[in-house]
Amino acid sequence: MRNKARQTVAAGMRSFEHLLPASTSQAELLDTVRRLNRDPAVHGILVQLPLPSHLAEDEVIEAIDPAKDVDGFHPINVGRLSIGAPALVPCTPYGCTLLIREAVADPTGLHAVIVGRSNIVGKPMAQLLLAMNCTVTIAHSRTRDLPGLARQADILVAAVGRPEMVRGDWIKPGACVIDVGINRVPAAEPGKTRLVGDVAFAEAAEVAGAITPVPGGVGPMTIACLLRNTVVAACRARGIDIPADL
Ligand code: NAP
Which residues have C-beta within 8 Å of that of residue 160, sequence separation ≥ 6? Predict the structure, then answer.
């Protein structure tokens, strides 16, 4: 959240933080969201998840005005994405598509395998890759022969949350590998930790045509796309044409 607020301001926008205590009631939280919905000075609303267990996350997300839903989690935006209508798209998978476009000249017809089927990464990633004319397979914890499936991928997206699960010998030579995972593991120095992805980077980099590092790679793109979504929402609110390169 700190990074998001800092970069929002650095990009020339205003950032308002509403820090509610963990004991906040559902009614208080919904009231805050509805107040922001009505505020014309606010173009984007982000409720930082996960919420404490006594709060109903779905109801809170559904309370956000879909036009201000810069995380792209509201069912209206999820539905619009799936039918190819203009939507606010979840930031992490959208950022992944920008990285893939840099590395892959023409994704048409390529086999994309996504490991992970969460609502915030795996599923929207699949919709976006379908829209890029990829042939898409979604894998998850019940998938059989995951290494064999991953080896068929021209584009492999790992969004699992398991440190370095994807090994070098799971990668098709030349494949584009996008590592969404952020996992904290013990560092060599006692008492310290470090971040690793879902892909064993050094092994995979020997085989892949392109690969994103962790940290770096997908993480910074998520915040960039949050800012992008806010600009899109502000343009739509004011009836301004959205620049084609946004
Ligand atoms: P999630 O909701 O926990 O979903 C994880 C997915 O991985 C599930 O679909 C699960 O399958 C699947 N999975 C778990 N173990 C597996 C295994 N052994 N083999 C195959 N699939 C397995 O996680 P998420 O929110 O999508 O996040 C995934 C990772 O991305 C996390 O490390 C998270 O921190 C990171 N992340 C990074 C960013 C960023 O900005 N870079 C943003 C969001 C998330 P089932 O559905 O069958 O349980």
Answer: 115, 116, 166, 181, 198
